[in-house]
Amino acid sequence: MVAESFLTTMRSEGHEVDFAIHNAGGVRCSLNPGPVSKADIAGKLLPFAVPIGVYKLKGKYIKPTLEGAIDNALDPKHRNREFPI
């Protein structure tokens, strides 16, 4: 839901965006069904100020980057409370 909201926001601002990702460790809670306020998002779900950016990447770099992030997140010697993307 977080990455989807980033994607929607950037597209609505006129950016040509194919996908969005966010560090899962930055998402701090689940939300219950029902209305969601800005305070719920800023105070609970995403308590850290994270700028949203748009980057141009060559496709050949995307897969190894994501695989590396997952490998590091799942490898006990590299873990520091991170979660896969």
UniProtKB/TrEMBL annotation:
GO terms for biological process: nucleotide catabolic process. Residues 6-72 form the 5'-Nucleotidase C-terminal domain. Coiled coil: none annotated. InterPro entries: 5'-Nucleotdase_C, 5'-Nucleotdase_C_sf. Gene3D superfamilies: 5'-Nucleotidase, C-terminal domain (3.90.780.10). SUPFAM superfamilies: 5'-nucleotidase (syn. UDP-sugar hydrolase), C-terminal domain. GO terms for molecular function: hydrolase activity. This is 5'-nucleotidase. It comes from Vibrio ishigakensis.
